[in-house]
Specification:
The complex is a heterodimer of chains A (112) and B (114). Chain A has 112 residues and is mainly beta. Chain A contains no helices and eleven strands. Chain B is mostly beta strands and 114 residues long. Helix content of chain B is 0%, strand content 54%. The chains are: A mainly beta (112), B mainly beta (114).
Chain lengths: 112, 114
């Protein structure tokens, strides 16, 4: 079983809807949680990161971490067609420059 | 514009040939990474370097080598390419922010081994 599980989708929603993207993980030692957005044939772009449990908001994006359930979420409000991309969750143990463990990514389609 | 550059953008390579993927960053980040991205498998760490002169193995290091002679450059070498190394390769670098190492990615190199 891979350490980080993420539904690959595709997830298709109408413009303006609230989008919920989720990941589960198995290693309770993960401390830092990130969300990346990747457009087709481009490199991943960091959207947000969160340390331990809690919420973090940045404009239309909210990241949520529940360490007790080993579950993280990204919410997108007022979704736009330009939000159509693959969203990758990632996490690491922190305390050093170790690499990230990624989910496989969810392909999101916002219908105009 | 500051960031990470990778070269080549894409490459078709015959099996058994040697190939070096280049990565340069101008942000003076201490740490750098190489990942490969495969359909159905996601992004996986190949090698990393916490600072110039040091390197470490990631999840899938076999068949790859790296060096870190200076802060800016982190080349990835395939000594004898095999078809299973067909993938998209991303270089990344990181800065510390609030205790987390925020990683920034380059545009990728699309490699096909025939």
């Amino acid at each position: 079983q891979k350490e980080v599980e993420q539904d690959p989708g595709p997830l298709s929603v109408p413009e303006g809807a609230i989008v919920s993207l989720n990941c589960t993980y198995s290693n309770s030692a993960f401390q830092y949680f990130m969300w990346y957005r990747q457009y087709s044939r481009k490199g991943p772009e960091l959207l947000m990161y969160t340390y331990s449990s809690g919420n973090k908001e940045d404009g239309r994006f909210t990241a949520q971490v529940d360490k007790s359930s080993k579950y993280i979420s990204l919410f997108i409000r007022d979704s736009q067609p330009s939000d159509s991309a693959t969203y990758l969750c990632a996490m690491n143990f922190g305390g050093g420059a170790d690499g990230l463990t990624f989910g496989k990514g969810t392909h999101l389609i916002i219908q105009p | 514009i500051a960031g990470i550059t990778q070269a080549p953008t894409s490459q078709i390579l015959a099996a058994g040939r040697r190939m070096t993927l280049r990565c340069t960053q101008d942000m003076r980040h201490n740490a750098m990474y190489w990942y490969r991205q495969d359909l159905g498998l996601g992004l996986r760490l190949i090698h990393y370097s916490n600072t110039a002169g040091t390197t470490g193995k990631g999840e899938v290091p076999d068949g790859y080598s790296v060096s870190r002679a200076n802060t800016d450059d982190f080349p990835l070498t395939l000594a004898s390419a095999v078809p299973s190394q067909t993938s998209v390769y991303f270089c990344a670098s990181s800065v510390i922010s609030g205790g987390a190492y925020e990683q920034y990615f380059g545009p990728g190199t699309r490699l096909t081994v025939t």
